[in-house]
Known about the structure:
The protein is an alpha/beta fold. The protein contains 13 helices and 11 strands. The protein folds into 2 domains: 9-171 and 351-383, Glycogen Phosphorylase B (Rossmann fold, 3-Layer(aba) Sandwich), CATH 3.40.50.2000; 186-346, Glycogen Phosphorylase B (Rossmann fold, 3-Layer(aba) Sandwich), CATH 3.40.50.
Amino acid sequence: MDSRGSTARRVHALVALPPPINGQSTANSFLVGALDNDARLSVSLLDTGPGQLRRGPRYHWTRVRRVGRALVHIALRARRGDAVYFVLESGLGRIYNVFIAVAARLVGCQPVLHHHTAAHVLHQDPFFAGFCRLLGAKSSHVVLSAQMSAQLLGRYSLPGAVRTLHNAALISAPASLERPQRRGPVRLGFLSNLSDEKGLDVCLSTFRLLRAEGIEAILSLAGPAADPSAEVTISNAAKEFGDRLEVLGPVAGANKQAFLLSTDIFLFPSRYRYEAQPLVVLEAMAHGCIPVVSHAGFTAELLGDGSPPATSLDSFPEIALEICRAIMNSGQTLHTMSAAARSRYIELRDLSERELDLFIDDFAQGRTRAPPANLAARTFAINSGDLGR
C-alpha cells in the first residue's frame, strides 16, 4: 500500500486475508484493493487472519500475534479522523473486535465495521448490542443487503450509520457466458471448505437419492476438507460412488472457472450458523449454474425468477431430484434456468457496483451517513425479490 500524501484520507484496514481462502478473506482482499486504488485514500493494510484453515494452537497464536501487531499500529500510527476498517468476527473472535474498537476510539478514529456474518442479525445478541454502544456515534456499519440492514436496525439501536454493499461486485466472473453443450449425465457441483456444517453430508445424501431414482449424474466436490472428519466422509463416499464422484480438492483460477462452467446444478445446502451472503453461490450463478440452496443467512435473497426457491435441508434432495428430472425431460430446461441464474447475477452485480462507488466515497469524504433513500429503495426491491421473483 502506498502513501498518497497529507491530503489523502488515511484508512487502516485490519482484516483477514488468504490463506485460507474463504468468502470473507476473498471479499476483504477485493475491498481493500478497491480502497487502495482510489487516489483520495492512503491505505495501511494489516492481515489479522489465522493463515490456515484448521484450528489449533498455531491457528490461535497466529491470530493473537497479528491482531496484537495491528493494535500497536493503531496506537503508534493512526491519528484523529482516520478510518479503521475491520470485519465483525463470529464466536470468540469478537473479542478481537472489542480490542480494535477500543483502540480506534481512544485514538479518535472512525470505526467502520463490515458485517459478513448474519447470526446477530437473525437473532438478538446481547453481546452485539453492547458492542454497538462501544463503537460510538461516528461509527459506520456495512451490511450486505437492504433486508439485512432493515433487520439489523430493527433489532438494535445503532448510534452510527448503516451502508449497504452487496457482494455481487466482489467476485471474479466471466464477462460473457459460453457454457459447453451438455451431453451425458447431469453434472452437480459443490464448492466450499468441505464440511457437514457447509452441507457435505446433504450433498452426498442428495447424490445417493438421485442414483436410487435412476438419474444419470456426476457429483464434483471442490475445495479442501475442513477437518479429519470430512476427509473420512469423502474417502467413504469415493468408495461408495466410484467414478461418479469427482474429488477435485482446492480449485482456483482457470481450474475453478472450468469447474463452474461444467457444473449444471450447484448445490449449497449450508447449515453454517454465521452464513450471510455466500460469494460461492454468486460465482456459480455468474457462470450459469442452476443454484439449489438452503435457507442459510440471506442466501435466499440471491435467487431470482427462474431459479428454484431456497429450501429446507429436509427437502433439499427432492428439489435437486425434481430439477434433474426436468433437465432430462427437456433439453431447453437447462438452458433456460442457466440463463436466468446468469441474468440475476448481472442484476445484482450492477446494483453492487453502484453501492461500491458510494462505499468508497464515504471513506474518501469521511461520511457516516446512510445511503440515499432512492438507492436504498431500489436495493430493498432487488434483495426482497420484488425485481425478479
